[in-house]
Amino acid sequence: MSTIVVFVEHKSGSARRASLEAVGAARATGMNVVALATGPGAGELAAQVGAAGASQLVAVTGADKYSPDGCAADVVALVQSSGAKAFLCANTSAGKDLLARVAGALDCVPFADCVELRCEGAVFTVRRPVLAGKASITTQSDSPVLCASLRPNTFAVASGAGAATVSSVATKGGKVVVASIAAKPDAKLDVKEAPVVVSGGRGLREAPHFKLVEDLAAAFGNAAVGASRAVVDAGWRPHSEQVGQTGKTVSPQLYVAVGISGAIQHLAGMRTSKVIVAINKDAAAPIFKVADYGIVGDAFEVLPALTEAVKRARA
Amino acid sequence: MKIIACVKRVPTTEVQAKVAADGKSIDTTGFEYMLSFYDDLAVEEALKTKEKHGGEVTVLTLGPSESSKELREALAKGADKAVILVDPAWHLRDARSTAKALAAKIKELGADVVFTGRVATDRDQASVGPLLAAYLGMSCVTDVVKLELGAQGGNAQRESEAGVETVEFPLPAVLTCDKGLNEPRYAGLKGIMAAKKKTIEETPATAVPNASRVLKVELPPARKEGRIVGEGAAAVPALIAALKNEAKVL
Fold first, then answer.
1. A151-165, B111-125, B191-205, B233-247: which has the minimum mean pLDDT?
2. DSSP character for B243?
3. pLDDT band at A187 (very low <50, low <70, confident <90, very high)
4. Tell me: the pLDDT tens digits for B95-139?
5. A297 touches chain B (CB under 8 A)
6. CB spacing of A132 vs B124 below 8 angstroms
7. Using the beta-carbon criterion (under 8 Å), do A134 and B219 form an inter-chain contact?
8. What's the rounded Cα separation, in Å, for the pair A103 and A118?
9. A12: burial class by Cβ within 10 Å (0-12, 13-18, 19+)?
10. What φ, ψ does residue B6 adopt, rounded to 5°?
11. pLDDT value at residue A122
12. What is the C-alpha to C-alpha distance for residues A280 and A288, in angstroms, rounded to an integer?
């Protein structure tokens, strides 16, 4: 049976959900899935990646500090030794970085941020958005190894299989090293991966009013805060929270847009969300054209009431 | 220091996508173009690096001859040279094909550091930077938001889901620039006048056959029409009911 190598990100032995989605997508092709993980705790992932569909886990040792080119070399070695037909990872910050390094080393075409993956015969096709989601392209890979990163929140995590067998291998090491990480204050959810995103825009009038957006996000419990380009450019919020064409593209289960008019660049970044709620004073705002549910009203009036109602609904 | 800013001319972010008659490409009729947002940051970082370390800045692109408009602007800001690897079918190349042609030229020019944007806002691949590094045997850091560069290497900060990473790297290197790294300057009148006298080198891009084929281009399905559940705070209970009972996301 042909093999697919999947890079699995984790935090001290707890796998990133988007990585398990990639394992599930790999397994759905019917091929044998080998997971590769690196760093402290990598060996503890056997049950998690096994349940998601991997038969083997390769834990890379000696990589206490992440090296992106070192990790790429480790992936390439595994792809070559296993004769893998594909390499997959989640389209996260580390994933898309790794994808192109691996593809370059294997002289294959990389496909980033895929939302569909098919394997018929031995031929892989992927679908991926372009122009920030204004269109999508379905492409057949003619490279010897399909190299693709998968959009988080898009592929299902499989369940049912047993634990993966574990082997370990020493890292080849790299020239580029992540010397330190200044962790986010309270392990905040990333806007690309969160199941719920609450985004704010100009309608909030001043940076301190984003507290209302943060409160609503906190009420959901599993939400990340997003922002429109206007408020990022105004310095109210960091670029890491920007949703849209020069920010991040998101597809959460629920997207709540507060005081965002809905410029085409913003709509491109969130229109694949499953459910969209818009709250805006202007009933003619373009955001209402993509929203499933809208409230015409002032954010300062609606948000506190909505936050309380969400808290009660989840209590 | 030999510095290259690798840039791309892309459709403006306002464009509406249309599928071309062949169903396999985007109809670009009426499109207007601009320098990709993040490539503007790459040009700025290249100029800043020259100001600090001395050397020469070359702006490089693969694209149509019309890219001279964007390159002329980079020259006006202070870049020394500009090169277009001309390919009228530039937008049909896959990332590998583009990167291989660019890498061949960079090898010929020689570079200590190559700056490029985090991602081009047309294909959204974010791949050409790391691909260049792979083909040129250079080190690479992606999504750089802060940079300290020395003669042998440097350290860069990048934002990941985990937080802010500080990454050490040796030169030569490919660095991809993210928002926050700098504020691009505007070209002054003197620079604009000087840039008019500079020549932009145009050479045919090396042909590299694609290792992929496009089967289909589609527009996203139209969203089901939604509804306004009400006005003001009074509409909150109706919204909660809809999220709970209809959408089942609460």
1. A151-165
2. I
3. low
4. 999 999 999 999 999 999 999 999 999 999 999 999 999 999 999
5. yes
6. yes
7. yes
8. 19
9. exposed
10. -100, 120
11. 87
12. 8
Tokens standing for residue A309? 């109602």
Q: Comparing C-alpha atoms, which of A192, A258, A191, A201 is closest to residue A228?
A: A201
Residues of A in contact with B37 (CB under 8 A): 246
Q: Which pair of tokens denotes residue A302?
A: 């609606």
Q: Which residue has the tokens 């592929």?
A: A155
Question: What integer is the mean pLDDT of A266-291?
Answer: 95
Contact A96 B230 (CB under 8 A): no
CB contact at 8 A, A74 and A50: no
Angle between helices B68-77 and B37-53 (to 10 degrees): 30
Tokens describing residue A211 = 């507290």
If contacts are CB pairs under 8 Å, which of residues 146-205 in chain A contact chain B? 175-184, 190, 192-193, 196
Instruction: Using DSSP, state whether A11 is helix, strand or coil.
Output: strand
Kind of pairing, strands A146-150 and A86-90?
Answer: parallel
C-beta atoms of B161 and A276 within 8 A: no
B137 burial via Cβ count (<10 Å: 0-12, 13-18, 19+): exposed
- The beta-carbon neighbor of A134 closest among B17, B140, B240 is B17
**Domains of chain A, CATH where assigned:** 3-170 (3.40.50.620), 196-314 (3.40.50.1220)
pLDDT tens, B11-31? 999 999 999 999 999 999 999
**Complete DSSP assignment for A222-262:** SEEEEE-HHHHHTTSS-GGGBBSTTSB----SEEEEES---
Does A116 contact chain B (CB < 8 Å)?
A: no
- ipTM exceeds 0.85: yes
Q: Given this model, what pLDDT does residue A89 score?
A: 98
* CB contact (8 A) between residue A112 and residue B127: yes
Q: What is the DSSP string of B114-180?
A: EEEES--TTT----HHHHHHHHHT-EEEEEEEEEEE-SSEEEEEEEETTEEEEEEEESSEEEEE-TT
| Domain ranges across chain B | 2-204, 220-250
* Per-residue model confidence (pLDDT) at position A161: 72
Question: Do B240 and A295 count as a contact with CB atoms less than 8 A apart?
Answer: no
Please state which of the four CATH numbers 3.40.50.620, 1.10.579.10, 3.40.640.10, 3.60.150.10 is assigned to the domain occupying B2-204.
3.40.50.620
- CA–CA distance from B7 to each of A45, A67, A312, B4, B132 (Å)? 41, 26, 51, 9, 13
